[in-house]
Amino acid sequence: MLYHHLGGGDGSMDGEQMIRKAYASLLDHDFERAIAWFEEAVRKEPDNADYHFRLSISYARSGRLERALEHARRACELDNGAREYRLHHDRLQALELMKEAERRIGGGEELERAIRDLNQALELDPLAGDAYLLLAAAHAARGQLPRAAAALYELLKLNPQHQAARHMLQEIAGKMRR
Question: Which domains, from first to last, does the chain contain?
């Protein structure tokens, strides 16, 4: 078993002990080892929603969004009443939509789809400031300057010091005056 390779001993370790090992690994800044311990805990107790949730957080922090979403989804399936699991899942789903929308905007194609994805991302996570910035860029690329400005104003409500939003808003205001 994996925990033999991780220094886990005789194989009689329970899920909670594996979780403690994962957190000890996090404290040592050994994120891959922490993920391995969380994975082992999930293998040991596959119906434990909390283990899936913790593994999902570690995957997300390591930039492995697809795996993070997979385990967040599983945590929600196992305990769909857990608000914390649902919020985490929704945030990850919003990140996935934003990533896809950014790709579309960068390619200059499918702007309407990017706008739909970003609006959906904001429904899932209304505090996703980057979604507002991307939404403004998509609207600006379509020539919808008032909508772009509106998205930036929403972002500035969340973060009045957001320099990129302030700069983009100045550019859009200049274009609208012309």
Answer: 2-80 (1.25.40.10), 91-177 (1.25.40.10)
